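Show me any protein, keeping tokens residue-aligned.
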Amino acid sequence: MAFVLAARADVLVAAWQELVELITVQGEPLPASPAVISAHEVEELEGQAPQVQAERLLERAINHYDGATELIATRVDGWRGKIKMEGSLNGLFTTAMNANDLRVRAAGIELYLAAYDCGKTPEDLDRIMDRCDRNAEGRPHNLWTVGLLGNRGVDPRRALDYLLRWVSDPDDTTRQWAVEGIAMLGTDDSIAPMLAVFHDDPSHVIRERAACGLAQHGMLTARQRLTAVPELLRFADDPALDDKTRGWVFQALADISGERFGYDVNAWRDWWAKGPKPPASIAR
């Protein structure tokens, strides 16, 4: 009997070792189960507080569960003033805004606006701009919120024009958050101003934030980011840029393209001449 148990134990250990060897941290994504929100989970959510619903659905959206962003879209207006951007939701929001799926980032924006009880009308945009003009202490938050509202379709051109008023402000923090707001717009006409800030702003911090907005941060699509490449290639040879900023040029090119040519500007020019395409769709 002892021999049989020992033999079975060896078989179990061998099977477990084989399983561990099969599931590694390398390779293509390996689904644990179909990424679909079940009817049971939706029913369970109905009885939860808005804060819990928002947390659960944003977590599901981050993990690309089908139906999660749609449920957020249908419920978020009813959560205005009923959820708070704190605790788990705040952490999930930060994760969502760094997601490689712009729909997840958009869901994060919707929840952020709901948490701050901010509507999405031209009148709400007027109110935020007026508050920004009058209240220097809250200006960074309000500048960013202007960008969020513009991204959600609330007068995006007017939002950009307003943010551009602040990109030459003498206060570094104000300029930075104007740039952060512009990055959140996600519009074609937001690209040139960010390139100008990246090249010309006197602050290294703000130049870096503009580079991030062009390369990965914010709400530009992969196709939009590619349109910045010709100007970035021009920056790469610009003697007016210091070494640190030039390094960010090459980092931005790498983030936009997914290629790794380092500081070899000729390799980057060859790549561009071949007519690069945006990155492939996100794997689920």
Q: What stands out?
A: The chain has a mean pLDDT of 91. Residues 49-117 form one domain. Residues 76 and 211 are 31 Å apart (CA to CA). The chain has two domains: 49-117, 122-273.
